[in-house]
């Protein structure tokens, strides 16, 4: 067998709504699949990107009851791109509110990129509420990972894109690009905010693609998407995602009895495999699958294959579930 799994056909939510989570924030949520199916929650990336219809297709709708939601400030949640009362721990509390709202005792937690960070923070805070973890593109919010993206690392792979990203601010501000962008993304001038957001989102869009994808880059840099992602990411990263240094590795022992799968692209230039490897050392029970021809995005063939097989496995679906080599 060499055929890779693909996404399930498009599916519409069977329920959706807004949940008031306090602090002036309301969260948009939707549930897809079959009511009474295996409970799962999907945690999107960014932070700031919001959910999309294609993300629903990673789960067999006949077997799963999946809740997806736009995190604070993202997508249809309000206030749009709001930074007040918007931290990792606010989001962890929101996930618990959504679980209670949905009536689930425990659920599978599924997240990629920043969604993997949030999944780990949630699972380490509420391990008794997590049946399984499916993670992609591990990001541990370490200084090394911030430096890779915003100081030295990815800049060596994409020098022309880095020149545009760093060149958006004057030379005297380039010693701290996060601070320089934060000033612009929180400016009172809407034109200044939008210009910085588009450059920020273009840099991220370049690093997440294994091969050029003009359509994806156009989506990344669309005005609303760019503003939410850039403002919220910069806000989170300047505060180290409100995590203590090394916290997610330090507390990985809390995951020891939670079955887990990590699907990690070998050529992921946004969240390189070193973080996934470090997590595997701290959580030896997890099934780490490094996709030899994979990058960062869940839509890449090898990454899709691993994620769909992991979700199928935890739903008890018969058939081969181990990762396949590239065709």
Task: Put the structure in a nutshell.
With 327 residues, the protein is an alpha/beta fold. It has helices at 88-102, 114-125, 143-150, 154-157, 159-167, 177-185, 190-208, 214-220, 223-238, 247-250, 273-282, 301-314; strands spanning 15-22, 25-33, 38-43, 64-69, 107-112, 130-136, 260-265, 287-291. α2 (114-125) links the parallel β5 (107-112) and β6.
Draw up the topology in text.
Layout: E1 15-22, E2 25-33, E3 38-43, E4 64-69, H1 88-102, E5 107-112, H2 114-125, E6 130-136, H3 143-150, H4 154-157, H5 159-167, H6 177-185, H7 190-208, H8 214-220, H9 223-238, H10 247-250, E7 260-265, H11 273-282, E8 287-291, H12 301-314
Parallel strand pairs: 3-4, 3-5, 5-6, 6-7, 7-8
Antiparallel strand pairs: 1-2, 2-4
Helix pairs in contact: 1-2, 5-7, 6-9, 7-9
Q: Give the fraction of residues assigned to helices.
A: 25-40%
Low-confidence stretches: 323-327
**Beta-strand residue fraction:** 15-25%
Write down the CATH topology of the largest domain. Answer: Rossmann fold
Mean pLDDT across every amino acid position:
95
Number of strands: 8
CATH superfamily of the largest domain: Alpha/Beta hydrolase fold, catalytic domain
Instruction: Tell me, briefly, the overall form.
Output: globular
Q: How many alpha or pi helices?
A: 12
């Amino acid at each position: 067998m060499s055929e890779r799994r693909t996404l399930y056909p498009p599916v519409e939510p069977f329920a959706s709504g807004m949940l008031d989570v306090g602090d002036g924030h309301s969260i948009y949520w939707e549930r897809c699949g079959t009511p009474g199916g295996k409970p799962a929650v999907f945690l999107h990336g960014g932070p700031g990107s919001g959910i999309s219809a294609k993300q629903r297709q990673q789960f067999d709708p006949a077997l799963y009851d999946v809740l997806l939601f736009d995190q604070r400030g993202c997508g249809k949640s309000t206030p749009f791109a709001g930074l007040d009362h918007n931290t990792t721990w606010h989001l962890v509390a929101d996930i618990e509110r959504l679980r209670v709202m949905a009536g689930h005792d425990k659920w599978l937690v599924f997240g990629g990129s920043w969604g993997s960070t949030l999944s780990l923070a949630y699972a380490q805070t509420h391990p008794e509420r997590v049946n399984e973890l499916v993670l992609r593109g591990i990001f541990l919010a370490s200084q090394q990972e911030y430096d890779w993206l915003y100081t030295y690392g990815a800049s060596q792979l994409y020098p022309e894109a880095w020149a545009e990203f760093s060149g958006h601010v004057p030379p005297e501000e380039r010693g701290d690009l996060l601070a320089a962008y934060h000033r612009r993304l929180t400016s009172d001038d809407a034109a200044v905010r939008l210009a910085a957001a588009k450059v920020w989102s273009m840099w991220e869009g370049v690093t997440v693609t294994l091969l050029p994808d003009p359509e994806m880059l156009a989506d990344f840099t669309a005005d609303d998407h760019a503003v939410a992602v850039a403002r919220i990411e910069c806000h989170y990263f300047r505060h180290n995602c409100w995590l203590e240094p090394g916290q997610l590795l330090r507390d990985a022992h809390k995951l020891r009895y939670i079955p887990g799968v990590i699907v990690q692209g070998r050529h992921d230039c946004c969240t390189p495999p070193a973080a996934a490897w470090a997590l595997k050392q701290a959580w030896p029970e997890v099934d780490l699958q490094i996709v030899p021809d994979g990058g960062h995005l869940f839509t890449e063939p090898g990454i899709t294959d691993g994620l769909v097989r992991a979700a199928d496995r935890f739903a008890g679906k018969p058939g081969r579930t181990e990762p396949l080599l590239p065709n």
